[in-house]
Amino acid sequence: MARADFQYASSKTFKANRGAIYLTDKNNRQVTVAANKNFPIIYAVPKALDDPIEVANRLAPILGQPADKLLSQLSKKNDIHEPLSKKTDPEVVKKIEDLKIKGIYIDSAPERFYLFGDLAAHVLGFVGPNSTGTEDSGHYGVEELYDSMLKGLPGEVRSDKIISPKSGEDLTLTIDPSIQSEAELILKNLVQIHHGKSGNVIIEEPKTGKILAMGSYPTFDPNNYKEANLSDFLNPAVQQIYEPGSVFKIITMAAGIDSGKITPETTFIDTGTLVVSGKKIQNWDHKAHGKVTMTNVIEQSINIGAAFAERQTGDDTFREYVAKFGFGEKTGVDLPGEIKGDLRQLRRSAPAVAFATASFGQGVAVTPIELINAFSAIANGGALMRPYLNAALEPKTTRRIITPAAAEAVTQMMVSAVDKADVAKIKGYAVAGKTGTAQVPDFLKGGYTDELIHTYVGFGPVKNPRFVILIKLDEPQGAPLAGTTVVPAFRDLAQFILNYYDVPPDRL
After folding, report:
1. How far is C-alpha 498 from the chain's CA centre?
2. What is the mean pLDDT of residues 147-170?
3. Number of structural domains, the chain?
4. What percent of the chain has pLDDT over 90?
């Protein structure tokens, strides 16, 4: 009778079937990444137990739970269904079966299952008990943001009438499984080879804002999220800010060129150092480069040249363009917990040195999603798009930042930088990109530590950009320059995407 009561009131009867999550490949085929799978569950019917204390003590070592916790569950005399273990290990199931305890049963119930383990874990999140422990809900990622859509409505008994559950809706993402897998593999190897603290990668389609890949390392397996560190659940792409370094020089040049204050051919004399507000600024290579153009500034990543471009543009105009590019505001990407970058150092009362250092990406903080979206605007002819993951959404233009002519001019400066450095070049294709090597701030003592963050953002082919890639490596050991770490990783990933999409060469 007890088991019959359970079948009447079990979660299998009242639990709604959670909607599946799909990824989308280049042919618009859906690939299931999160679904529901039957797992063994162990439950008790407390009113059928002869001796709850004895049962609790026998089960505790097998289930790995405190006996007193189990006893409180088993002592609910009027309870006809008390779950003790979900997604139970087969060995545990066998041991429980062998005990043959009256009132303890083994059944199966659908639970969330991630078919590719840790693939896209930071995008997906996971499903687990809610704050009250009464039902499951999505945590982090799209599982959290779209939880109400995915979870459906549970069934219930209402005046002796059984109301059947309503299944949740499915969710299809813009993430491409092949690109995502390759991006995560390259990122993992990058972090491990250079003994980095962590790393991030994002790939965006510039014309639409679709996110084709997004990953971080270290990561976690949402099937076994309880074994992960809590800090690993946060998505650094949208929930972490950092000073980007020289990659920000592209934003500085875009502001100066679009405002008409400079051109790619504008020249200045680089002496290697500059004193602003009583503070000395110098180039990363501690060299004076003499007479150079703004294109040379990007090619050789000259800090003093970027400061010159900012000074020609003007503090107010520079600040306006930085804000127009989306820095200091949320992008609106459909992920939970997005934060915005920090532009407080560019307040109107800030000293001139704050603007000078911001011109080469120090003193301002951005999120990776802000940074790649800004570069996507340049690849998109100056129009800023809203990045998104839900394939059901439509592309949305946030605003125009710079003219197509200014975007083309900045793009060609980036192409020249790639060609001169040679590391990121891909035979047969014109590729645009820029490195960033930034010092990590010392939040205790002030100033900066000796640790570095490497960033590379690039796109291609420039005549019809199919992708923008951001790849970031935190605190690599023994690798002072981004050109030796993230740039080769970018090249490998860009080559993969060009091959995957079968993009014809644009530079013969």
Report:
1. 22
2. 83
3. 2
4. 71
Report DSSP letters for 213-260, one per residue. Answer: EEEEES---GGGGGGS-GGGGS-HHHH--B--GGGGHHHHHHHHHHTT
Interhelix angle 315-324/249-258, nearest 10 degrees: 110
Residue 209 has, within 13 A of its CA and on its CB side, a CA count of 26
Q: Which of 102, 137, 172 is the last residue of a domain?
A: 172
Phi, psi of 176 (to 5 degrees): -95, 120
Cα 62 to chain centroid, rounded: 38
Whether residue 410 is found in the same domain as residue 428: yes
What integer is the mean pLDDT of 110-120? 94
Range of the domain at 48: 2-172
41 three-state secondary structure? strand
Residue 58 confidence (pLDDT):
85
d(CA 313, CA 30): 48
Asked whether 455 and 470 are in contact (CB, 8 A), the reply is: yes
Residue 115 sits in the same domain as residue 237: no
Tokens of 240: 């972490």
Residues 20, 130 within the same domain? yes
Give the CA count within 13 Å in the CB-facing half-sphere of 427: 0
What is the reported pLDDT for 75?
81
- Answer yes or no: is 508 within a domain: no
CA angle 71, 73, 79 (to 5 degrees): 130
Q: Are 289 and 299 in contact (CB under 8 A)?
A: no
- Where does residue 361 fall: left (phi above 0), alpha (psi -120 to 50 degrees), or beta otherwise? left
Helix (H/G/I), strand (E/B), else coil: 354: helix
Last residue of a domain, one of 172, 204, 221: 172
Q: Are residues 199 and 235 in the same domain?
A: yes
> Using the 8-state DSSP alphabet, how is residue 167 labeled?
P
Report yes or no on 506 lying in a domain: no
Paired tokens of 287: 């060299």
Residue 179 CA to residue 415 CA, distance in Å, equals 23
Q: Is residue 507 part of a domain?
A: no
Tokens of 402: 């710079």
CATH code where residue 183 lies: 3.40.710.10
Q: Are residues 18 and 164 in the same domain?
A: yes
Counting every residue, how long is the chain? 508
Distances in Å between the Cα of 300 and the Cα atoms of 206, 288, 295, 385, 416 are 26, 11, 9, 30, 10
Q: What is the pTM of this model?
A: 0.90
The answer to whether residues 182 and 40 belong to one domain is no
Say if CB 407 and CB 382 are below 8 A apart: yes
297 in Cβ contact with 290 (< 8 Å): no
